[in-house]
Design a protein that fits this description.
Largest sheet: 5 strands, parallel
Shape: elongated
Distance between the termini: 19 Å
Structural class: alpha/beta
CATH class of the largest domain: Alpha Beta
Number of domains: 2
Strand order of the largest sheet: 5-4-1-6-7
Number of helices: 10
CATH topology of the largest domain: Rossmann fold
CATH architecture of the largest domain: 3-Layer(aba) Sandwich
CATH superfamily of the largest domain: HAD superfamily/HAD-like
Order of helices and strands: EEHHHHEHEHEHHEHEH
Bound molecules: magnesium ion
Helix content: 40-55%
Radius of gyration: 18 Å
Strand content: 5-15%
Number of strands: 7
């Protein structure tokens, strides 16, 4: 739990503030299957997509690289031993279809009180996120729907690197206009969020991805700010 008052806060998004709508990934994966792998059973494609997404996430965190929408679908097709060539020209159409599904099934705050708790912070806030399948352009729209609109974002697909790469945290601090040592980064991944932030000179707080844990840290910051105001 942070004891000193940070001058600014950087927040991870997935697992820290937001959870997927449970209907989104099945609908998105089915859309991709129909378009790219109609001969593959729905449950087989869904399982391959989820496994590819996890494997790519692990690679991104290990190497600090960003692999997005196209790269994750490509990994799925390769795992299913299907050709990846149709993906090239269909990417814009598939991306638009994903966006429509995401806006129809937007992510939710992990805890109902989180949007108000972030708004109550009396310090600058930036959202610092590895974007995966959902790029920053789409995340900005989804964040508004989930009650986290208006905060600046540092998104891995826009930087071309992913947490724990130090450039993600340097960009967060530059966006905040606050020296790294005075910024607290909060996230649920020990490698991407905590080790990454500390290596870049920030303070870091690891939370459990249950919403309650994030809320407790945010409340402690609000109390520290009140105590020192
Ligand atoms: Mg996370």
């Amino acid at each position: 739990m942070p004891t000193a008052r940070p001058a600014a806060v950087s927040l991870d998004i997935w697992g820290t503030l937001l959870a997927s709508d449970p209907d989104f990934k099945p609908a998105r994966n089915e859309m991709l299957r129909v378009a790219l792998a109609p001969g593959v059973a729905a449950d087989v494609f869904d399982a391959a997509m989820r496994q590819a997404d996890r494997d790519v996430d692990d690679r991104c965190v290990r190497d600090g690289i960003d692999i997005g929408f196209t790269g994750r679908i490509e990994a799925t097709l390769r795992a299913l031993e299907l050709p990846v060539s149709p993906l090239v020209e269909r990417t814009p159409e598939l991306y638009d279809a994903q966006q429509r599904l995401a806006l129809a099934h937007p992510p939710r705050p992990l805890h109902v009180e989180l949007p108000a708790a972030v708004a109550a912070l009396r310090v600058p806030v930036v959202l610092t996120s590895n974007t995966g399948m959902l790029p920053g352009e789409l995340m900005r729209k989804l964040l508004v729907l989930a009650g986290f609109g208006g905060y600046p974002g540092v998104f891995s697909n826009e930087l071309g690197v992913a947490k724990p790469h130090p450039r993600m945290f340097e960009e967060a601090c530059a966006t905040l206009g606050v020296p790294a040592a005075d910024v607290l980064h909060i996230g649920d991944n020990p490698d991407a969020d905590v080790a990454g932030a500390r290596a870049a000179g920030l303070q870091a707080e690891l939370i459990r991805p249950d919403g309650v844990s994030t809320l407790a840290v945010l409340d402690s910051i609000v109390r520290a700010c009140g105590a020192s105001a």
